[in-house]
Amino acid sequence: MRNEKTKILVEAGVMLALAIILSYLRLGRMPQGGSVSLQMLPIFIIALRWGVVPGVLTGAAFGLMQILLGEAWIATPLQAFIDYPLAFGVVGIAGFFRNKKVVGIALGGMLRFLCHFFAGVVFFAEYAGEQNVYIYSGVYNITYILPEIIIAALITPMLLSKIKGVSNNQQQEQEYHTFKLLISVALPLLLTVFLMDEFKLEFINEFLFKGVIGLAWLITLVANIRDYLKNNFKTPLIVFIYTQLVTLAAYIAIAVFTLFSS
């Protein structure tokens, strides 16, 4: 028991240091904080290897280090707590789903999103201008958190299988389908939001951003249809394909309504 605690402590320290390093290897930086990086990976690894408590503590420690290292965007002490120790601490809740890694990663990532979303609505409302503050905060934060969740969902299970030295094909196949389902839902919804002419963000290269999401959506749709046919129609059509088709229909309906109402 003591050896296990020592191992957890040492591993958590290493992963904390790795998370700090990865936080500097980022893709861009948003005006009020936030960027795409691999900083959540070490937190997910600790949580999925050792459980919720080590994961939450490691995440909270990382958030605190972001403040101490001057990497935090601080408006008030409460906002700093919500956006950093709390937001990264809840990432460790992924440890509740150690046998369903992709589900745990998605949950931990979305809980972090909710923390940033709440902080954005309460403390950064003035940056929304004339836009709806809830939409502004939601889109602002999902812009960088969703890519981090996707990257973590792709990489973390592979890293854990290498660490454990075990390859469970059935579990990996299940995680692949779970991940693909999450992407099937997230991509078209995100694309729909950004195709709405009413919502514009100066800090996003709209053409590039929409193009990347649209291409990823198309690839996912093709992969879903291929698997649907390959499995001799055993995969429910409504699960893998309707997520895109219904969202596309919703966007067309919105566009038509806007056209006729203007």
Short note summarizing the structure:
With 262 residues, this protein is mainly alpha-helical.
Q: CATH first level of the largest domain: which class?
A: Mainly Alpha
Number of strands: 0
What structural class do you assign from the helix and strand content? mainly alpha
The assigned CATH architecture of the largest domain is Orthogonal Bundle
Kindly estimate the percentage of residues that lie in beta strands according to DSSP.
under 5%
Shape: flat
> Could you tell me the radius of gyration in angstroms?
20 Å
Order of helices and strands: HHHHHHHHHH
Number of domains: 2
Poorly predicted spans: 201-208
The biggest sheet amounts to: none
The averaged pLDDT comes out at 74
Distance between the termini: 69 Å
Tally of DSSP helical segments = 10
Keywords: Membrane, Transmembrane, Transmembrane helix
Organism: Proteinivorax tanatarense
GO molecular function: thiamine transmembrane transporter activity
Protein name: Energy-coupled thiamine transporter ThiT
